[in-house]
Fold these 2 entries.
Entry 1:
Amino acid sequence: MRVRLIPAEHDYLNDVQDVPRAFVPFMEIDGDADNFLKWSCRYADGRFFCSIESDVFGNAEKSFAISDADVSVYKKYTKRFIKNFLYDFLAEKIGKKLPYGSLTGVRPTKLYYELSEKTDNPYEYLIDEFHVEPARAKIVRDCVKNQKGYKNSSDENVALFVNIPFCPTRCSYCSFISTEIGRVKKQIPLYTESLVEEIELSKELVKRAKKKVTSIYVGGGTPPALGAEYLDKVLSPLKEYNVEFTVEAGRPDVITDEITDVLLRNNVTRVSVNPQTFKQSTLDLIGRKHTVEDIYTAYDRVRGRFDVNMDLIAGLPEESFDDFAESIEKTLDLRPENITVHTLSLKRGSVLTLSGAVKEADGLIKDMGDFAIEKLYDAGYVPYYMYRQKNMADNLENVGYCLPKKQCVYNVDMMEESISVIGSGAGAMSKKISGNRIDRLSDPKGFREYVERTDTILRQKKEFFSF
């Protein structure tokens, strides 16, 4: 069925639309559809009322008692009320339940922390109040449990992030602002020069504010795509910090002996070797110009020298359950310190989305995800961070697992937004966190604009980070 959404006219309720959108493709949302789904709300005599109207689903109304004296509390709880009400209504009418129930946010663990302050059993609360299925509530609970001792909360701590938006090729599922390195090789020296200048400013800001750097993450993109010479220039200013230092090496075909030497020389402690799959035909289909054998070669170069993360994706085009299960098994055979299991998300601007791919919701990817959970737990891995995105197959999640005591501090702090982060590079996001307040500053996404506006970027950054 096709419906158009008619949402309540309150800005703070804009993201309530994510609830009906989560039911795609069980129902199709189209602004030109004849049928409609409408919700509205009102406040009267100490009660908040929500009404749902639809010419295909019928009508319903529900209310609860709440004071409107504290605006922030009022907005939070009325929004949750509407989301839960909409979810209950649609789940019954469509006959489908979603793994995360009415939760639509990126960070379920942040909600779990909040609930922990109000109830003795936030796990049961997720299940009873938000309709999260028990298996998913368990992952949320276990991520929070396994963050203990790794999640920072001191205002004195900061993380450093460096973005290098270049890749050897563009993967069909990717929507990151990244450029194929072969097209821009002549601009790499200029980009590196501007980036190093911003990194040096970041270090100066840390020193001036007497902050403590707790982790460094160099991502992208595929940072080693710069080549050893320019990667060394970027990493060298950061090697003085004796902290967890991650470089998203990513593509196995760029992890050469020369690149490995650069990483070691600059005190990098953690790298990624991301297969995504161990099926060669899938690698070819999604645009990764390397072989399965390259994965093993790259892993052999870095194992024992760094903590290693390996990414896999459930739901890649034309992959069966057995294909994904084999990738899980082969990754476990290698036993890297970290394994991240992603669910395919159809991102706006990706080749997959532009080619007409639709969100999968037939349960196959959920079976893949459930298999990964069982196998990773059985192999001694524990979940320690997670996040969700829109348009994820079977409405699932991305979960980072690790061997005991191998949690990545940066991943925990970024997902929980627990400390400030000073970002450098095209598209890098900086966050200044003070209590519950989060201020953001983003560098220009295009690397050419980034290079051309270096002076402006540095000035804005100085003003922003007046801690």
Note: The first helix runs from residue 18 to 22.
Entry 2:
Amino acid sequence: MDGNVIYLTRERLLELEKELNYMKSQGRVDIAQKIAEARSHGDLSENAEYEAAKEAQGMYELKISKLEATLAKARIVDPSVLPKDAIRIFSKVKIKNLSNNAVVQYELVSPEEADFQQGKISFSSPVGQALMGKKLGMLVKVKAPAGIIDYEILEIDNN
């Protein structure tokens, strides 16, 4: 997969577009109102509230820029046309660590969608790379900072 392309489902692309539209319209209005309110409190040189509002505006605009860059590189992937018998982007997998028998579940997603707390790991992470293209029952070796970890693929859900 191309490193400059961001692979998203149609649903996720629509979510990001909706978020960007909100940020560029109502979100900017909200920030401008906060700045105007802070400005009304007098001397700008000693107005911490004004400085904070201006800094928040800068961070907000940076977030908008990043979202626009993500959408510019986004490509829609239709999971229904991808192979069903092998692990690929958007696969949900259950794997077992063979050294301690711990079983974990992950969904392989693009780096931009990765969220370890939600069990979403990047297909380009060490575990993701080791799993890509593998099939049910296969053993995989993952090169981790702590050394090589052996996993067995217990389940693959490509729906």
Note: The mean pLDDT is 89.
